[in-house]
Structures are given as C-alpha cells and as structure tokens.
Amino acid sequence: MSTAPRLAAAKRDWGHDETGCTVLHIDMDAFYASLEVARHPELTGRPVIIGTGPRSVVSAASYEARRYGINSAMPSARARQLCPDGVFLPVDMRYYREISHTIMTEVFHAVTDRVEQVSVDEGYMDVSGALLAWERPTAIGAWIREQVERRFHVTCSVGVAANKLVAKMASTNAKPNGMLLIPAARSAEFVQMMPLRGIPGIGPSLERRLNAWGVDSVADLAAMSPEALERATGSRAAARGLWMASRGLDDRVVTPVRVEKSIGSEETLLEDTTDQRTVRRLLREACDEVASSLRRRGFVARTVTVKLRFADLSYRTRSHTLERPTDAAGVLYPECVRLLHGMLGMNGETAGRDDVSPDAPLPKLIRLAGMSASGLAPAEATAVQPSLDDMLEETDSTDSRTAGERRRRAEAALDAVRERFGNRAVRFGA
C-alpha cells in the first residue's frame, strides 16, 4: 500500500517517444485488499481493511477505505473509528505470496527473464531484449495490465521510463489502474514538478533536514550544488544520490536475482501476558509458517532468531546458528523455546539445558513474539552432513530413515493438505 505523494497534474500525456524507455515498474493496486475482494466478490465496492485486532496495524486498505483517511501502518483501532462499517480481515500472507509468485512467474517472466521483484506487490522489468517481439514498451505494459486483471481479478499500475527511479515515480502517479510513459527527454521535467517526498527514499527526517536549508521541492533540490547538498545531508553518497535524482538520473540496473536474506513471522497479542504457553503457541505458529515458506521457496536456513516486544514497547532479539541448515518447524521450534528461555534468564542455557516447565510464568509481560530464519541457501545445492546420532538411527531404523527425514516428510505432507484445503486446515503440533 503506497503512501507516496501523487500529483494530479503528473497524470497526463507526456508524449509518445518511447526511445530508450526500456524499464517498467509494475505496482499492484491495493494488492492485499484487492486479492481479498477477488476471492470474496461480495465485498466489491465495500471498504476493506487488512489488519484485525485492537492492537494491530493496517497492512492494506481498499481505495473505498482510503476515502475515510485510512492508511497503512495506522492502528486498526483508529481505522475502526474512521470507518466503523468497514470489513476488517486478517493478513493472509501465505495467500498473497502465492498469487504474487504466480503473477511474477506466469506474466512478468512470459515477457523477459530480466525481472527484479522488490516486494510481494511490485517489481521492475528491463524489456530491452523483448522489444524485437513486442516493438514498444507500452505494448508490454498494456498486456501485463490486461493479463493481471483478467486472470487474477486485481489491477496494477505501470510506469514506463528510461530508468528505475523515474519508472517507479511514474507508476505511483499512474495509480490506480493506469500506465504512465515518461519519455527520456522529459525525465527531469517530470521529477522536478514533484514534492520532496515524491522521490523514493526521502522520508520525514531527511525532508525536515532539507526544509531547514530552504529546500521544499525537487525543483529546489535541483538548484543546489553537490557541495551544498553534502553540507545539508552530511553525506557525500546521499548528496550524489539526491543530485542525480533531482535531474531524473539513475544508474541502477534491473537485477534479476534478488537474494532473500531472511523469512520471518510475528504476532502482537491482544493483551500483554506472562503466560508461557501463549507465547510458545505464537512461536510454534511462526515456526510452522516460516518452515512452510522455506520449503515452498526452496531454501534451508542456518540461523534462528527470536524477537520479543515487552509491555513498555522495548524489544529484544537473540539468535543461534544451527549445526545443520533446516527447513523443518520441528527443528526450528525447540531452538526458539531455548532462545526464549535464555533471553529471559529462565534456564541454564550455557550448560545446554532446557528444563523449564511450560507452565512456569514468564518474568516479563510480553506484547509481541515472533521468529525469523536467516542464512538462507538453496536446498538443492546445500549438503547437509548427518550427525553421528543420525547415522546410528538410520542403521537401526526399519525404513532407513532418520527422525529428521521423517519429520520433514510429515511437514511436507502438511503443505500438501493446506494447498488443497486452505492454510488453516492443519497446523504443526509441538
């Protein structure tokens, strides 16, 4: 859900010269909310807000909901005050990622393999190699918009430009459900009509800093020398980036392979708690979701991290690197429990013990709990050295499988059940 500023004056015909405009930025419109309406057509035309619970935040909102002033990251409780008749739905990230993957694979990659996915609902394409077949970049953009709407019942907006910066700003100003071509010769003119926050990467803090130097728009930014920008920002790299952006310049290339660094899941409780079983349940569900995502994406993970947020809004994390990479919740969850106890001083972690009763109360009120897996590597290319216990178990086992192998097969079977009957059909048990 984009909150970048848009100018009505920018959504106009900038000309039809597509020479050199080989970068497309495609941004799904209100993606999460649109997907929910797609699978629940009875919600069409109603304000749909993704994010439930009095202490949760809004992850996405339909355009009908945005008319009430609802934005992403707004507390859900505030959204209910603004739109009491809205339809509030929980985040179903597994579903959103599945559809996203299908769109990227079956639509974007049908045009070119030069695709850089930057989030679940947006990506860049370098279509220079596809023009022999398609002739015009805007023909590709129009085809993508038609395919996404016809096949998935959601809309997307497309920016067509000579580089990534201008293409992204163009797609933002094409919303909703539009396409905007910015000829290469008019890139600077287009960018310089924008407010400062129109440039991706300029947030409130940098905006205030630039305002203090009398810079209130991108046009003002373009009038500054590199030396003045360096004094204003305190960074030579930041000054160079802003100098180029204010002129519609960007030397970044579309990078097809985007290395994923971690996969995580967390949840905020409705009430702060010291009940250990409640927190363990959150960690168990997070491990299940993360492990399933690892298997679906073909990764194994080497490092486990647990995150806790306390009643005073402070938070703490602790990580542990496994001896062998894994994609199994049955391996991740016990590590999370040990990290939980170690973070709260509840066990003799240094002695390798974990003898804390699950009924023992936690020493601090917990507001949020979650975990993430990092140190990702492709499962097929990662050799996992069996332990001595594994080799002994394999020798004694009637089917020549270790407990780890049987656990992984069982969890893969859970994936198959969920794929057929829905994400909530079955869950990993401790």
From TrEMBL:
<feature type="binding site">
    <location>
        <position position="27"/>
    </location>
    <ligand>
        <name>Mg(2+)</name>
    </ligand>
</feature>
<dbReference type="InterPro" id="IPR043502">
    <property type="entry name" value="DNA/RNA_pol_sf"/>
</dbReference>
<comment type="subunit">
    <text>Monomer.</text>
</comment>
<dbReference type="InterPro" id="IPR036775">
    <property type="entry name" value="DNA_pol_Y-fam_lit_finger_sf"/>
</dbReference>
<keyword id="KW-0234">DNA repair</keyword>
<keyword id="KW-0548">Nucleotidyltransferase</keyword>
<keyword id="KW-0963">Cytoplasm</keyword>
<dbReference type="InterPro" id="IPR053848">
    <property type="entry name" value="IMS_HHH_1"/>
</dbReference>
<feature type="compositionally biased region" description="Basic and acidic residues">
    <location>
        <begin position="398"/>
        <end position="411"/>
    </location>
</feature>
<dbReference type="InterPro" id="IPR001126">
    <property type="entry name" value="UmuC"/>
</dbReference>
<keyword id="KW-0235">DNA replication</keyword>
<dbReference type="Pfam" id="PF11799">
    <property type="entry name" value="IMS_C"/>
</dbReference>
<feature type="active site">
    <location>
        <position position="122"/>
    </location>
</feature>
<keyword id="KW-0239">DNA-directed DNA polymerase</keyword>
<feature type="region of interest" description="Disordered">
    <location>
        <begin position="378"/>
        <end position="411"/>
    </location>
</feature>
<protein>
    <recommendedName>
        <fullName>DNA polymerase IV</fullName>
        <ecNumber>2.7.7.7</ecNumber>
    </recommendedName>
</protein>
<keyword id="KW-0479">Metal-binding</keyword>
<dbReference type="Pfam" id="PF21999">
    <property type="entry name" value="IMS_HHH_1"/>
</dbReference>
<dbReference type="GO" id="GO:0003887">
    <property type="term" value="F:DNA-directed DNA polymerase activity"/>
</dbReference>
<feature type="domain" description="UmuC">
    <location>
        <begin position="23"/>
        <end position="203"/>
    </location>
</feature>
<keyword id="KW-0460">Magnesium</keyword>
<comment type="function">
    <text>Poorly processive, error-prone DNA polymerase involved in untargeted mutagenesis. Copies undamaged DNA at stalled replication forks, which arise in vivo from mismatched or misaligned primer ends. These misaligned primers can be extended by PolIV. Exhibits no 3'-5' exonuclease (proofreading) activity. May be involved in translesional synthesis, in conjunction with the beta clamp from PolIII.</text>
</comment>
<dbReference type="InterPro" id="IPR050116">
    <property type="entry name" value="DNA_polymerase-Y"/>
</dbReference>
<keyword id="KW-0238">DNA-binding</keyword>
<keyword id="KW-0227">DNA damage</keyword>
<dbReference type="Pfam" id="PF00817">
    <property type="entry name" value="IMS"/>
</dbReference>
<comment type="similarity">
    <text>Belongs to the DNA polymerase type-Y family.</text>
</comment>
<feature type="binding site">
    <location>
        <position position="121"/>
    </location>
    <ligand>
        <name>Mg(2+)</name>
    </ligand>
</feature>
<feature type="site" description="Substrate discrimination">
    <location>
        <position position="32"/>
    </location>
</feature>
<dbReference type="InterPro" id="IPR043128">
    <property type="entry name" value="Rev_trsase/Diguanyl_cyclase"/>
</dbReference>
<keyword id="KW-0808">Transferase</keyword>
<dbReference type="InterPro" id="IPR022880">
    <property type="entry name" value="DNApol_IV"/>
</dbReference>
<dbReference type="InterPro" id="IPR017961">
    <property type="entry name" value="DNA_pol_Y-fam_little_finger"/>
</dbReference>
<keyword id="KW-0515">Mutator protein</keyword>
